[in-house]
């Protein structure tokens, strides 16, 4: 399959830093969520619409490595890659860059998601949301 | 009406302090929510059950004054008072105490809530949830 | 004094909505903080720089009224106004607009801040940070 | 080495659930932090004291698998295990149990930490904080 990557920029919010003065580790997961939101929008599949239609993407697994600290007001670039896709699952990879001074890779991670319905029951996205499946398949060329 | 007060204790979480090293101001609102949760449980009206039954209490207004800083791991006591009640609204007051050393009042505030249904439409709690109304009326003696 | 207003736009993050499906009330305070950050940057006084120089602005008091719910992915506009200024204090007002459909005022609020040093001791900003004071005085015309 | 496990209980806070009605995935990392805080306190090494003394434990890596959803007000038990220790690093494992009905494992994960000083420079804990090292070594029997 083809990998597809989207880019989103933000600044570290005041409340995202902790008393060490650096971004608290759980907040990178919020940025991953932002990265997914913006990538799915770019792909013509806004997640807010998917959820209203009854297609949810809860997280099964997350991994993150922290490579360089970031701090309040730092400019950040998140690269989000749709890395794997099946009829029941979808996976993303993330690279978080610090854009001040010489660019640095601040963190990298991944999330794995299940396709589920409103009642959190696993579903076959090809069967229950054929248009979403077609769009995704076209994009990744599978 | 009678005022009813409940007490809840917690320690400041690591992620609740900001880069000044003190609790970030919005987190006191999370503590207010905890205080309400525990007071309603004490009163025999657990909010999780109310929500499942279709009675929601969104916030219409909040106010908070910050009197002394608190920091990571500080022991905190929240006193939550059911301060006003009508068929369409409910109000709470909060006092947040720092329990290290000589006790200090760290913050005080209030929230005002509407009774609404699942679709966020205002409701008359006496009409739509008579048992909840009866319990609340008995408690405050109105 | 002259009032000065800045504008900042964002989308509601996934993790900012609660299980009612609407933005949790404490998150509006994070948006107020964002509004202040962007207004101070516009005024040539980035808060990250002020903090590094030893000038902190802890919140003394916050007030917020919630007028219309907002939800995940909604486009939001925050208008932040520098509303009062003295040698020891600074106050802001906020208006949060929902920009989908016919624009609606979703919330309005205010915060009051003290000028303090790194040790959270109150300071006279005119005396200890004369350049900051001069810039602020010019802006508000006081 | 011996593994050491501590137990901490909490209820899911209202603001920890997202619009799916289940605990948002990043909040499990806050619970991991709570688990570490309470385990270190049990071991006679309160993290707040370590930080004041200049010994910080930033996260290098985190991993979490989500096995069963949890929701607002659910009673949760976190088991935190000190899983590895060297002079420059420390690792923890976590198991998060849902305690309503028949107990379920809701999530499991791990974090890896560096020993650093106030300036986030890596340090040899045996050399710079010999008492902390001695206490930890005794505990894990290394």
Structure description:
Four copies of one chain form a homotetramer. Chain A has 142 residues and is α+β, with helices and mostly antiparallel strands. Chain A has one domain: Thiol Ester Dehydrase, Chain A. Chain A is built from four helices and five strands; from the N terminus they run βααββββαα. Chain A has a five-stranded antiparallel beta sheet with strand order 1-3-4-5-2. In chain A, a hairpin with a 3-residue loop joins strand 3 (75-85) and strand 4 (89-98). Chain A is elongated and about 50 Å long. In chain A, 37% of the residues are buried. The mean pLDDT of chain A is 96. At the B-C interface, helix 1 and strand 2 of B face helix 1 and strand 2 of C. Strand 2 of chain A pairs antiparallel with strand 2 of chain D.
Quick structural overview:
With 142 residues, the first copy, chain A, is α+β, with helices and mostly antiparallel strands. Chain A has helices at residues 27-42, 47-53, 125-128, 130-140; strands at 4-11, 59-66, 75-85, 89-98, 104-114. In chain A, strand 3 (75-85) and strand 4 (89-98) form a beta hairpin.
Q: How would you describe this structure in keywords?
A:
142 residues, homotetramer, five-stranded antiparallel beta sheet, 5 strands, alpha+beta, Thiol Ester Dehydrase, Chain A
Write the layout of secondary structure elements.
Four copies of one chain form a homotetramer.
Chain A: E1 4-11, H1 27-42, H2 47-53, E2 59-66, E3 75-85, E4 89-98, E5 104-114, H3 125-128, H4 130-140
